[in-house]
């Protein structure tokens, strides 16, 4: 009988490590002397300012508003864009698009149907979603396929993506974001619109992903 | 302090002024310098070219010689407290390569198992010149005068193997009359790299050309560094291109203008 | 061909021409150095990225602590590799993914080809796949293997696309077309991109938009994608791809089938470990606080919560190919295994004075630069015939010598790989291999070996050394105006561009004996 590739590769690794028996070493301690927190509660004013600074630095457009002004702020942003037909995930809060003069197509109304085709997504003017968590220090927003974020294709194919971020979703740093995320869900970490630096290391915003990223930050 | 000089093979044979200036400087500062006559070379060229087996007897010899120098006089040694070399690269080899070679050769059954520890003991008391002055002798103003426009090239091994940081610059800034000009892209390698300069001569020359361009933009009379080897490389290029800038070892500047009178 | 490097019985990578170039490094470097446009492009690109990296690394006051943690995590991965790989396999399988193991490049290519074929039907076979930039698939020559079977692999990363369209090879880990400037890229698009606007300018934005238009339909119709992975989390079965353009998201999201090829060393033990690497990687590679997009998926991904709970989210036919191809041979060398800690950020390339001047093609391997100089010889094996060999020599054996040992790579490495020490170690291995081979009767020791042996004999005795110094002083006869302009081979390599000062009339040792000889 020939050895399977699996057994052979695992055997080679044991040989390479000089293992003779079936001993399995314990994990070695890792020195974690780096910052695991910026020391501010989620949504602290300093974090919100930092997030906005970093988002703008990476060429996202940011609007800040109070909780009762989300609809109006989203509507104004969409009007400025001239967006008429929008895609939305199934769990988008009703009020977010209430003030906008747009036609909405909703993705994923049911588990086995109601998903929008790629062609439909390619034809809409944009997509509006929420998010799971935002990281101030890096200007990152994480989408997690929950009802308010939607399937990954929903936020990928349209050319315009508007994300509503609640202040309490904003944490300081990457180490503060990971415990708030569920690895079993597909995750997309977004930091600004798509970009490339492949031509002379010169950064150009907007390639295959949405070329425009708009963030509505809901404070208070 | 009683200090043993490790002149290094290159300074001994080709650039004696660097070693002489080290002696003159340390003696002027009130220290006693001894030169263990058995010394030869640290073996770096062999190690960096892949000839560790050949390097082994050279390393053993270096350890023997300087172990004896560091041994108390009551036990038949020279009783020095420190070893100094006017070279970041050679001290880097002593500190970071000798024990590695000793262990590898011990694993191959070619070296004594105790050699690595002996090499580490010698290395722990071996210093590059700016380290000795600033860290051990606690002096930055060595009382030198050198009224010239000078730029400083931090050699790779002093910078990234020994981490001498800005010690040479602090010493230079304290030299009276010296006009210190910052070298653009100072931390870029000059392209010497020992046998690299011959094995990959084209790449080495391309690196040197950029270093020389940087030196020229400073319009300095003198380019200095803590390593005779890198200075030989930079100087070799300057000489070939007939650029007037001179290469002078850091020790010669710290010894002060006219130090040769003490020879 | 016999290989002495690595542990007996642990094979090096299969030869597919992706690791062993046609020329030795000095020969290839000479060609590259003669290309002034290339020198200009590289100098501009590397200095730009160096400045960006320095700025964002400087923003973190805990950078050194992050590096230390990254190094410790990777060392732990290597020590527990069998257990972690099995754990990863269990978690991927439990969530609907399929795990395959490949001993070498040929086996990995066969697995991928079979999966691509299985994704189609006899009536409607899959004839093309979309690809996310991946070093592992470049290493195994997957595109060529698929092409031989009639399947087109479309590279979707902009730089990879530039390389593919011009039938070129990558010259950088992160920016494979770093050797091309905007004008050259415009010409490549005009010459090779179907339906391109003839009025295309060389503005980077315009060029990026041309790539977007060209690839858009391909993405939306793709049925199979092939990717690599930046990280795989053993604890959760999660795979992660870090990218910028969104081409990765397209490939990882839209097709029905996704095949990920990953070296066995790319593991991280826990979900928490991402907090270290998601900080280290973007800042080190593109010089950004965070790259535009990072995708993470675990098994066959599904949505959760709400009306669409459990609906498919992305490819449901999911495969992970775990690749050895010389990695276990690398792991076997305790002094060399750190090369497997590499996270392919390419910071070492950008700071390397050799890479900056020669570019990546001179290394002849998909892994160029400092990390390539230590990884390639271990993956592919050295043969003991370097540039010192009488007839040319093995290009791979010349890679550990493609460095001035300046140490800039170590300082830039986010996981503290001690590349300079590893280069010195591999040089020793090369020489030891060469010496073992030359014990065969009839093969003479190289001239270099003879010179090194002689020098070592001189250097172990002060008497011999001072005698040799007297010989050296005869060199004064060669000097004019205090300088020597020409020396015989091999030192002529020095004097082609550099003078040598005349040896001094008196050595230090002679001076000491004359002036202070009464002292010790």
Task: Kindly list the characteristics that best describe this protein.
heterotrimer; A: 220 residues; alpha/beta; Rossmann fold; six-stranded parallel beta sheet; 5 helices; B: 263 residues; 2 domains; four-stranded parallel beta sheet; 14 helices; globular
Word description of this protein:
The complex is a heterotrimer of chains A (about 220), B (about 260) and C (about 525). Chain A has about 220 residues and is α/β, with parallel strands linked by helices. In chain A, about 20% of the residues lie in helices and about 25% in strands. Chain A has helices at about 5-15, 45-55, 70-80, 120-125, 175, and strands at about 60-65, 85-90, 105, 125-130, 135, 140-145, 160-165, 170, 185-190, 195, 205, 210-220. In chain A, the strands form 3 sheets. Chain A has a 6-stranded parallel beta sheet, with helices on both faces. In chain A, strand 5 (about 135) and strand 6 (about 140-145) form a beta hairpin. Chain A is globular. Chain B has 2 domains: about 1-135, no CATH class; about 150-260, Rossmann fold (3-Layer(aba) Sandwich), CATH 3.40.50. In chain B, the strands form 2 sheets. A 4-stranded parallel beta sheet of chain B has the order 2-1-3-4, with helices on both faces. In chain B, strands 6-5-7-8 form a 4-stranded parallel beta sheet, sandwiched between helices. In chain B, helix 4 packs across helix 7 and helix 5 (about 90-95) packs antiparallel against helix 7 (about 115-125). The two termini of chain B are about 20 Å apart. Chain C has helices at about 25-35, 35-60, 65-80, 80-95, 105-120, 135-140, 140-150, 160-165, 180-190, 205-220, 245-255, 275-285, 325-330, 345-350, 355-360, 370-380, 395-400, 410, 420-440, 445-460, 460-475, 490-495, 510-515; strands spanning about 100, 130, 150-155, 225, 230-235, 240-245, 255-265, 265-270, 295-300, 315-325, 485, 500. In chain C, strand 5 and strand 6 (about 240-245) form a beta hairpin. Helix content of chain C is about 45%, strand content about 10%. In chain C, the strands form 3 sheets. Chain C has a 6-stranded parallel beta sheet with strand order 1-10-7-4-2-3, with helices on both faces. A 4-stranded mixed beta sheet of chain C has the order 8-5-6-9. Chains A and C meet through helix 1, helix 4, strand 9 and strand 10 of A and helix 2, helix 3, helix 4, strand 1 and helix 8 of C.
